[in-house]
Write a structure and sequence with these properties.
The chain is built from eight helices and twelve strands. The protein is an alpha+beta fold. It has two domains: about 130 residues, Tumour Suppressor Smad4 (Sandwich); about 150 residues, no CATH class.
Length: about 375
């Protein structure tokens, strides 16, 4: 057995008011009476039992190898998991003092990262040789359905995260939200027809803030479920920045297309908007599941690539071109154009090239309409 013990991650035991818990002077150990004279030995490692959210449920401080793992109570680390054998595995010192894992007899074995270790096999080195190099990651193990993490003193730690608790931290988010709201109102005012009703202003005035609040409330409830924290304002910050980035990107691309005369900028509007939307969703999901950042990033990238491929294929099938946009629907003032306007004769010649394509589309539409008419007459 190792010189190890459980650490209660919930904090010290509660005390009763008025009760003195200080031991008598004659029972105080020498290490407590004179801490400067006691020699403190750093632990070799720490084995943590994680819950589904990646939080530590139990922790075992390891002062010496070996450490036994299983369901039986004579193990150093006792796991309450029906898929774990009574004496499931042993972590012992290997060559150079680095830990190695030996899976004992049983049915399910263990997992070391993505590698499955069969029961009754040879010891497997899991920590490299000797002292782990600075910056190395903790060792992830799985016994049955229980996730374990073996941490050593030289393993890298995740950087400390910012804790936004003061009201001043929300000032920047509120300023950006107000800027986004004014942008939406300006776009709505430009798009309204003269003589419109006052009720036409309800969607941007009331609907947009309510939609944003409901969206962020949904994500905050997800954070409460998985992270046990109601993180409403962090999700507001993500949503506001994502929507503002969409507005700015669309405006910039459309204006660049009109100023330069190159339609490629306008064709990037759909893809750019989708990319910003995917990144925004990934940022929301990362707040809910911070331990799965890499997996979420892979899933978001795969979703974007698959969506782009499907959209391009549909455009090619329906319209015989990769992009649906033929021209920019918004033009800047002529005095701001970067290039010389095309002469009328050149424009007419270029437009003549569209005649075969238009004739073909017209013939196909007429044939399809005729076929539908014949089917209706038969019925």
């Amino acid at each position: 057995m190792s010189q190890a013990g459980y650490m209660d991650t919930e904090g010290p035991a509660p005390t009763v008011p008025g009760e003195d818990h200080t031991p008598p002077p004659d029972t105080v150990p020498p290490a407590m009476a004179a801490p400067e004279a006691a020699e403190r030995t750093a632990p070799l490692a720490r084995i943590e039992v994680l819950d589904r959210d990646g939080r530590v449920r139990h922790a075992l401080q390891v002062a010496a190898w070996p450490v036994t793992i299983g369901r039986a109570i004579d193990n150093d680390l006792v796991l309450d998991d029906p898929h774990v054998a009574p004496h499931h595995a042993v972590i012992e010192a290997g060559a150079g003092g680095s830990p190695q894992l030996r899976v004992l007899s049983g049915r399910n074995g263990m997992r070391w990262g993505r590698r499955h270790l069969l029961p009754g096999g040879e010891p497997v080195p899991i920590g490299g040789r000797g002292t782990p190099p600075a910056g190395s990651a903790a060792i992830e193990l799985t016994a049955g359905l229980t996730r374990l993490r073996l941490r050593r003193s030289a393993d890298a730690l995740e950087p400390e995260r910012d804790l936004a608790t003061a009201s001043n931290d929300h000032v920047g988010t509120l300023v950006l939200a107000l800027l986004l709201w004014m942008w939406i109102l300006a776009e709505h005012a430009i798009g309204l027809d003269p003589g419109s009703k006052a009720s036409d202003w309800l969607p941007p005035l009331v609907g947009a803030p309510l939609a944003l609040g409901g969206w962020c409330l949904m994500w905050a409830l997800a954070s409460k479920i998985f992270q046990h924290r109601f993180e409403f304002w962090p999700h507001v910050a993500v949503a506001v920045r994502g929507l503002l980035a969409v507005e700015v990107a669309n405006f910039a691309l459309i204006w660049l297309s009109g100023l330069s005369g190159w339609p490629g900028f306008g064709r990037l509007v759909t893809g750019g908007t989708a990319a910003i939307g995917v990144v925004t969703l990934w940022a929301h999901a990362r707040l809910v599941l911070p331990q799965q950042r890499r997996a979420l990033a892979y899933a978001a990238t795969a979703a974007y690539v698959a969506g782009a491929a499907i959209l391009l294929a549909l455009n090619q099938q329906r319209q015989e071109r990769w992009f649906a946009e033929l021209y920019a629907h918004m033009l800047p003032p002529p005095s701001l154009l970067w290039q010389t306007p095309t002469p009328r004769e050149a424009f007419v010649k270029r437009a003549e090239r569209l005649r075969p394509v238009l004739d073909k589309s017209s013939a196909e539409a007429a044939a399809e309409q005729k076929e539908k008419g014949d089917e209706a007459d038969d019925e």
